[in-house]
Design brief:
The chain is α+β, with helices and mostly antiparallel strands. Among the domains are: 170 residues, no CATH class; 157 residues, no CATH class. The protein has 17 helices and eleven strands. It has a five-stranded antiparallel β-sheet, sandwiched between helices. A two-stranded antiparallel ribbon has the order 1-3. Strand 6 and strand 7 form a beta hairpin. Helix 9 runs antiparallel to helix 10. The longest helix is centred in the last third of the chain and has 29 residues. Bound molecules: adenosine monophosphate and magnesium ion.
Length: 492
C-alpha cells in the first residue's frame, strides 16, 4: 500500500457499533474552500496522525467536515440535559459530529469530533454552524488548560469555512476538531433514563465503564462503583479549575463529561481578582455558574446522574440512600483535593498541621481584599527568596496579609521546608501566565480580521504557563484600569 492511499485516521468506532440507538448517522455540510487556521502538530503526532497530510487540501476538507475520511462513520450523538436547571429532553449534537475513534500513542481511545460542521437532526432552530472567534477561543483555552495540567478535551484544528455565519451580525464561519476521551455526558444518561429503557441504560453504563472506569466492572455493584468513580473524577476536576481560577460558565449536565475531562468551552474565562461571585457569561445573569458555585453545581449535576442510574442500583429506598451516600462523598473528595492542591500552591508538604484553617483564612482574606489570584501566588513565592513588596502591594489593608503570612511561614518552618525549596515547588504549580481575557480578545479580534500572528503568539505563551520569560509581562498581569465588565458570549 502506498503512503498516499493509507487512511488519514486509523478509526475503530466502538460508539456507533455498540450504541447505535444513540447515534444518528450524518454527513457534514459541504465547504467549498476550507482553510486551516490552527493545527496542533504535536497533538496530531500523539494521535498517530500525519500533521503534514492534515495541513494539505485533503486534510482541510476532512477537518471542515466536508469530506468524511476513510473509516469514518460520522454520527450526531443523542443526549438530553439540564440547562440552567431546566430539563431539555432532547439536545444532542445540533452542529457537531463524531467522526470516529482512534487509539493514541498512550493507548487511550480518543473521539475525533467536529463542531460547526452543519445542521443535524438535533439542530432545532440552530443553523449548525460556528464562527471563527468562539472556535479559536475553544482551541486556545482548552490547550491552555492542558498545559496547566487540567484534564480536558483537546483541540486539534480550526478550519475557516470562508462562509458567513449569521449571528447578530455576519461572522466568518469555522469548524473545530476536538479530541476527547469520549463525549458521553451526564446528559447522555439522562436521555436514556428518560426513555425508561433499562436494557439500553445497562448497555450505556457497561460501555462507559469499559471505556472510562474498567475497575468498576470488577466491583460487586458495578453501577454504584461507576457512579462513585465519576463523582470522584468530577470532584477532582472542579478542584483543579478552582485552583487556577477557571470559570466554565455553562455547567449544564450536557456539558459534563463522564470521563472527568473539561468539555464544551463556551463562555468560559479565567478570573483575575479573587472573587467567588465572578461571572463572565452574558447569559448567566443569575450567577448560577459563578466561580464560587462550581463545586456545588457539579454536585447538583451528579445528582442528576445518580437519578438516571437509579434503575440499575435498585428501586428500593436503600438504593436511593446508597446513591446519596456516594453523592455526599463529593464534598469530602472535593475538599481533600482542593486543600491538598492549595497546600502545594503554598509550598507545603502533604499533611501540614491545620492546613484547612490556613487555607480557609487565606481564602477569606483574598475574598475581602481581592488581589489578582494568579499574581498572588507568584508574588508569595517571590517573597520567600527575595522581597515581599510585590505580594504585599496586592493588599489594600496589608496587616491582615502580614498576620496570615506569618502563620504560613511558621507552618513552612514546622515542616522543615527551606524557603528555596518551597518557592521552587510553588513556581511549578502556580502559573505565571493564564489566558488574560483582554489579551485573548485582542488575539481573537486580530484572527477574525485575518491576522493570525497574535493568536499564534498567544498559543506559545499559554503552552508554557509556569516558566517566566522576558517580554511577556503583559500576560502576567490583569488588564490595567480593568472596568470589570468583561463578558463572554456563548459562541453559538
Ligand atoms: P452548547 O451550548 O454548545 O453546549 O450547546 C447546547 C445545545 O445546543 C447542543 O444540543 C448543541 O448541539 C445545540 N447548538 C448550539 N449551537 C447550535 C447551532 N448553531 N446550531 C445547532 N445546534 C446548536
Ligand atoms: Mg454542549
Amino acid at each position: 500500500m502506498s503512503v498516499a492511499s493509507k487512511p488519514l485516521f486509523a478509526f475503530d468506532n466502538t460508539y456507533v457499533r455498540e450504541l447505535p440507538e444513540l447515534a444518528q448517522p450524518w454527513q457534514g455540510a459541504e465547504v467549498e474552500s476550507p482553510v486551516i487556521l490552527a493545527l496542533g502538530a504535536q497533538l496530531a503526532a500523539e494521535l498517530g496522525l500525519d500533521p503534514e497530510r492534515l495541513q494539505s487540501p485533503e486534510g482541510a476538507a476532512v477537518l471542515s467536515g466536508s469530506t468524511a475520511p476513510e473509516g469514518a462513520e460520522p454520527v450526531a450523538m443523542a443526549y438530553a440535559g439540564h440547562q440552567f436547571g431546566g430539563y431539555s429532553p432532547v439536545l444532542g449534537d445540533g452542529r457537531a459530529l463524531l467522526l470516529g475513534e482512534v487509539i493514541d500513542r498512550h493507548g487511550v481511545r480518543q473521539d475525533v469530533h467536529l463542531k460547526g460542521s452543519g445542521k443535524t437532526p438535533f439542530a432545532r432552530a440552530g443553523d449548525g454552524k460556528a464562527a471563527i472567534e468562539p472556535m479559536l477561543r475553544e482551541f486556545a483555552i482548552s490547550e491552555a488548560m492542558h498545559a496547566l495540567g487540567i484534564r480536558t478535551a483537546r483541540s486539534l484544528a480550526v478550519v475557516a469555512t470562508n462562509e458567513p455565519v449569521r449571528r447578530e451580525t455576519l461572522l466568518p464561519g469555522a469548524v473545530l476538531t476536538r479530541i476527547a476521551e469520549s463525549h458521553l455526558r451526564v446528559g447522555t444518561f439522562e436521555f436514556v433514563a428518560a426513555q425508561g429503557d433499562e436494557a439500553l441504560l445497562r448497555k450505556l453504563t457497561d460501555y462507559a465503564i469499559a471505556r472510562h472506569h474498567p475497575e468498576a466492572a470488577e466491583a460487586e455493584r458495578p453501577a454504584l462503583d461507576f457512579y462513585r468513580r465519576v463523582v470522584e473524577a468530577q470532584a477532582d476536576l472542579v478542584a483543579s479549575w478552582m485552583l487556577v481560577g477557571f470559570v466554565h460558565g455553562v455547567m449544564n449536565t450536557d456539558n459534563v463529561a463522564i470521563s472527568g475531562q473539561t468539555i464544551d468551552y463556551g463562555p468560559c474565562a479565567f478570573m483575575d481578582a479573587y472573587d467567588l461571585q465572578t461571572v463572565f457569561s452574558s447569559i448567566d445573569s443569575g450567577g448560577r455558574y459563578a466561580y464560587g458555585n462550581q463545586p456545588m453545581i457539579a454536585q447538583w449535576n451528579l445528582a442528576r446522574l445518580g437519578e438516571a442510574l437509579l434503575p440499575l442500583i435498585g428501586a428500593s429506598r436503600s438504593a436511593v440512600e446508597e446513591l446519596e451516600a456516594v453523592l455526599h462523598g463529593f464534598t469530602v473528595r472535593y475538599r481533600e483535593t482542593f486543600t491538598a492542591g492549595m497546600g502545594r500552591k503554598l509550598g507545603l508538604k502533604p499533611g501540614a498541621p491545620d492546613l484547612d484553617l490556613l487555607v480557609d483564612d487565606l481564602l477569606l482574606l483574598l475574598q475581602n481584599q481581592k488581589p489578582d489570584f494568579t499574581q498572588f501566588f507568584r508574588g508569595l513565592s517571590a517573597s520567600l527568596t527575595g522581597s515581599d513588596a510585590r505580594v504585599r502591594a496586592q493588599f489594600p489593608e496589608v496587616d491582615g496579609f502580614d498576620r496570615w503570612a506569618a502563620r504560613w511561614r511558621e507552618t513552612l518552618a514546622e515542616q522543615g521546608v527551606s524557603h528555596a525549596d518551597a518557592a521552587e515547588q510553588m513556581d511549578r504549580v502556580n502559573p505565571v501566565y493564564i489566558p488574560r481575557n483582554h489579551l485573548v480578545q485582542e488575539a481573537l479580534d486580530a484572527a477574525t480580521g485575518g491576522d493570525l500572528a497574535p493568536f499564534a503568539a498567544m498559543l506559545k505563551v499559554l503552552e508554557e504557563p509556569f516558566t517566566e520569560r522576558p517580554g511577556l509581562e503583559a500576560w502576567a498581569a490583569p488588564q490595567q484600569d480593568d472596568p470589570g465588565t468583561f463578558r463572554t458570549f456563548c459562541g453559538t
